[in-house]
Design a protein that fits this description.
The structure holds 2 protein chains of 2 kinds. By secondary structure, chain A is α+β, with helices and mostly antiparallel strands. In chain A, 67% of the residues lie in helices and 11% in strands. By secondary structure, chain B is of the alpha+beta class. Among the domains of chain B are: 4-17 and 468-630, Up-down Bundle (Multidrug efflux transporter AcrB transmembrane fold), CATH 1.20.1640; 70-162; 206-321, no CATH class. Chain B starts with a helix and ends in an 8-residue tail after the last helix. The chains are: A alpha+beta, B alpha+beta.
Chain lengths: 297, 638
């Protein structure tokens, strides 16, 4: 079976359109992040308390909220979880030294019709949250730097720029989606972001590798033709790998909790990563080449 | 002579055998029934398993993960001689700033001390150090030492508590991470770890002193409100109402405190929380109205505790507390039946000397047992204490000169009991009563034996996962993993036919290898780890896709099957190497920066990709070679 036979799609022709679309999408995301919805940081980054509780009878969010009101915690975020009668209660950080999980138990004890089991408790201090934010930003910066260096050594510097810009594109795009959908950013989401970086890079490298190879074979051709040819030649592989990875993260998205958010991030990432490898990483190499040629003349 | 292909087969056979051997231990261990595990733990044969298995993370088997930080302001306060309010306020300010910035505590302290032109030597004399900088350096060393001691003490406690495979390690400068897998009662474990185990015997203040303080607070609160006292009812002589006389009414916190809010600076509390106040006393003696007489101690109904704490913390009220005294609460509420048949939980409020009469450092033995028949605590769980000679002397002097007074036994600022001293106790024997059950007695004995922490430790991060959630996570993730795997297998067979089957085999091998590597490393499999493993399924086929696409290209160019295979593998290898190395670099960075869940994910991703290069390139190539060596293939199922 073979889906793609000797394709010769003029990807390079659509570059301007692609870049415009990307810029608009990312701008919408940034506007949402900065002016409107911001990012929904989980307690890993803000500090606070999370409790996952399962009731043995049907309860409504309002009932839980009333029960929590008895201990002055009615402002908690209460969210239905995937499990049977399972809820996640989040409480933002405050400076009280009270034992929040114990207070929640006291509150829930006032629910007369149902018993409950606390299945998970997480408490993160504000200092830890802040440190994690810093560590995460550094992790992403280091990842980009190390990747840039590696590609500069194995390929050329302009390839490194292309790859890193494509990666920043992917991360910004995914962040934008997270801002608009208000999905939670937790440690696991960050792992997903870095996996997207790794995945998208994989794609980009495969195309670059073919460009590197074709540059030796087709010495007389200009870079635009070479990049276009290389994208076409690797298209079949790009789509198949994207497809198999997508199947896997699609299946993972049927879990619950953090792994589900991870899978959703990855689904977005696979699509964006594949797109950026073709439309962002390739064209940047072309434009950096042309400006250099222009300077020489 | 061995042919090259045979050598390749031998390498594969050896690695596979090794991998299967490593995986065997893990599978065997996790399929043992619990009784068998317990039995093997006692006869010691479990060790050989535990050293070579993939352990399940806390998120999969349930457990507690706690990050503790040494309370540095408290540590400095403990080290200082005669701490004054000025020193305490500097320490508090430094502590608060430390909580919200990344700066080192001692740098902040150094700055604060300089800003106030404060001379630390006033509290740290006798060190032969006079400059602030020298003393700060000394404190810094003390803090490092204190963390090491705390680490050792917590390790001792956990060891005696009996948890299998606990992780107790230092993190950062002043932090300790404790991970306890599979424990049933997280709250109990938390108490065990966090308990400072600071045992003190403190004399109670005389009743008159306490009464005059309460009267002063009443007065303070009364003058603070503009409530007209038209219908003043006669107030009983004794300020504390005994239970029989009290006529309770429900009053909202606002009614009591809201009026005084402006004056006392109390935060307003939602109106629906009602307090139990004595009707006759409410207007005249607002503070006393919150209190009850319980066996001649100050009793506070459970729902008034919050209000009483607020009042005691009020700056104006703080000034009224005699300088040489402090207030502490009982460890447990007491259940008291009121005249109208209702039961109400009362916490006891103790007014104690500021300085302890004797501290727990003289304790040589602490055992949990049931009280003997001659004592008050007959048949109750108690902790029996023995002191060394020096302690016995101090204790003897303390008891001898205070006969008739009450002596509170205080553990971590909670009062467990307050017996009256009837005779001088010369032998340094004492016991703690008032415990819920034998388990609690045992825990207290453990923490007393393991010694007191140099300073309190604060829990700055805590994650507790119940065992049932862990089981559900394993079931669902394994099920989804299998579904994902089957989906990929089917797709590969449809798309690449025979070669696809080969790639599937490589993926399967890959999973076995990753498990074997994790077992060898003694790594822990977490839920994100499983996600990483499932993800490598998707990404591992990529190497084969690259190779197969190349082979197809070469075949269309008209090369023979054998030449196409050779060219396909050799050309694709460079691509595979570059793309995988970059992903592995990201995984390495994640391992470096990541904590807990992220790290688990990065580890499986890293090893998954590495081993996929072996399975997807070396193993599949060997099988292709084997087939082309035996006959000249005209066509390839690809």
């Amino acid at each position: 079976m073979k889906i793609f036979k000797e394709t010769n799609i003029q990807f390079v022709k659509y570059i301007k359109m692609a870049i415009s679309i990307s810029t608009i999408c990312i701008l919408i995301g940034i506007i949402s992040m900065v002016f409107f919805r911001g990012l929904n940081y989980g307690i890993d980054f803000t500090g606070g308390t999370l409790i996952q509780v399962q009731f043995d009878h049907n309860v409504t969010t309002a009932e839980i909220r009333n029960a929590l009101a008895t201990v002055n915690l009615e402002n908690s975020m209460i969210q239905k979880s995937v499990g049977m009668n399972e809820y996640i209660i989040r409480i933002a950080q405050d400076n009280s030294t009270e034992n929040i999980p114990a207070q929640i138990s006291t509150g829930l004890n006032t629910l007369k019709e149902t018993t409950y089991e606390i299945r998970r408790t997480e408490q993160v201090g504000p200092k830890i949250g802040k440190e994690l934010r810093t560590a995460t930003v550094w992790a992403i910066i280091w990842a980009l730097v190390v990747i840039g260096i590696y590609i500069s050594i194995r390929f050329q510097f302009r390839f490194a720029i292309g790859a890193v810009v494509a990666l920043i594109h992917d991360v910004l795009f995914t962040l934008g989606v997270f801002s608009i959908t208000h999905l939670e950013i937790s440690l696991t989401t960050i792992a997903a972001f870095l996996t997207i970086v790794g995945y998208s890079l994989n794609d980009t490298i495969v195309i670059y590798d073919r460009v590197r190879e074709n540059m030796k074979i087709m010495r007389s051709e200009n870079i635009t033709t070479i990049v276009n040819r290389s994208i076409n030649e690797t298209l079949s592989r790009t789509i198949i790998t994207a497809f198999t990875t997508f199947i896997v993260v699609l299946v993972l998205s049927f879990t619950s909790g953090e792994i589900q958010v991870f899978a959703i991030a990855m689904m977005i990432g696979v699509i964006v990563g594949t797109y950026s490898s073709i439309y962002i990483a390739g064209p940047i190499v072309i434009s950096l080449q042309s400006t250099r040629h222009a300077k020489k003349q | 002579m061995f042919k090259k292909t045979n050598i390749r087969f031998i390498i594969i056979a050896i690695t596979l055998t090794l991998a299967a051997y490593m995986v065997y231990w893990t599978i065997a261990y996790h399929t043992f029934p619990p009784e068998k595990v317990e039995e093997m733990r006692t006869d010691g044969s479990l060790d050989q398993y535990e050293n070579r298995i993939v352990r399940l993370g806390l998120d999969l088997q349930g457990g507690v993960h706690v990050v503790l930080e040494l309370n540095l302001p408290k540590l400095v306060e403990t080290l200082a001689s005669n701490p004054t309010p000025q020193l305490n306020s500097i320490l508090e300010a430094a502590g608060n700033e430390y909580k919200s910035t990344d700066e080192d505590f001692f740098n902040i302290l150094s700055r604060k001390v300089a800003a106030e032109d404060f001379r630390l030597v006033r509290h740290f004399s006798g060190l032969n150090k006079f400059k602030n900088d020298e003393i700060i350096a000394y404190l810094r060393d003390e803090a490092k030492d204190a963390v090491q001691r705390a680490l050792q003490i917590i390790r001792n406690r956990v060891d005696q508590f009996g948890v299998s495979e606990p992780t107790i390690q230092k993190a950062g400068q002043y932090r300790i991470i404790v991970e306890l897998a599979g424990i049933k009662d997280p709250a109990q474990a938390r108490n065990l770890i966090q308990s400072t185990a600071l045992l003190e015997f403190i004399l109670l203040k005389d009743a008159q002193v306490t009464q005059s303080f309460i009267a002063a607070v009443d007065n303070y609160l009364k003058t603070g409100r503009q409530l007209a006292t038209k219908d003043t009812k006669p107030v009983p002589e004794d300020t504390l109402v005994t239970l029989k006389e009290s006529k309770d009414k429900a009053v909202s916190v606002n009614e009591l405190l809201g009026i005084t809010e402006a004056e006392t600076g109390l935060e307003s509390t939602p109106a629906d929380t009602t307090l139990l106040v004595d009707e006759r006393l409410f207007s005249e003696k607002p503070f006393s109205s919150l209190l009850r007489n319980v066996h001649n101690f100050i009793g506070v109904p459970e729902r008034n505790v919050y209000a009483v704490k607020k009042i005691l913390n009020n700056p104006g009220v703080q000034k009224l507390i005699p300088y040489d005294s402090k207030f502490l609460w009982s460890a447990k509420p007491e259940r008291v039946t009121t005249p109208d048949g209702k039961t109400e939980n009362y916490y006891l409020l103790y007014h104690l000397n500021r300085e302890a009469g004797i501290q727990g450092k003289y304790i040589t033995k602490a055992d949990a047992r049931y009280g003997s028949t001659q004592t008050n605590a007959a048949g109750q769980p108690i902790v029996n204490l023995s002191m060394n000679n020096e302690g016995a002397k101090i204790f003897s002097r303390l008891t001898g000169s205070n006969i008739g007074k009450f002596l509170a036994i205080v553990l971590d600022d909670k009062v467990y009991m307050s017996p009256s001293i009837r005779v001088k106790i010369p032998n340094g024997q004492a016991y703690i009563e008032g415990l819920d059950n034998m388990d609690e007695a045992k825990n207290i004995a453990i923490v007393l034996r393991a010694g007191a922490l140099p300073a309190p430790v604060d829990i700055i991060e805590e994650r507790t996962i119940g065992p049932s959630l862990g089981r559900d996570s394993i079931t669902s993730s394994v099920r989804l993993g299998i579904i994902a795997f089957i989906a990929v297998i089917i797709f590969m067979i449809i798309y690449y036919k025979g070669a696809g089957l080969l790639a599937d085999m490589a993926v399967l091998l890959n999973i076995v290898f990753v498990m074997a590597i994790l077992a060898t490393l003694g790594a822990t499999l977490t839920l994100p780890g499983i996600a990483g493993l499932i993800l490598t399924i998707g990404m591992a086929v990529d190497a084969n896709v690259l190779v197969f696409e190349r082979i197809r290209d070469e075949l269309t160019k008209g090369k023979t099957v054998r030449a196409a295979i050779d060219a396909g593998y050799s050309r694709a290898f460079r691509t595979i190497l570059d793309s995988n190395v970059t992903t592995m670099l990201t995984a390495l960075i994640l391992m470096q920066f990541g904590t807990g869940p992220v790290k688990g994910f990065a580890i499986t991703l890293f090893w998954g990709i590495l081993s996929s290069m072996f399975t997807a390139v070396f193993v599949t190539r060997t099988i292709f070679n084997y087939r082309t060596e035996h006959k000249i293939l005209q066509s390839l199922s690809i």
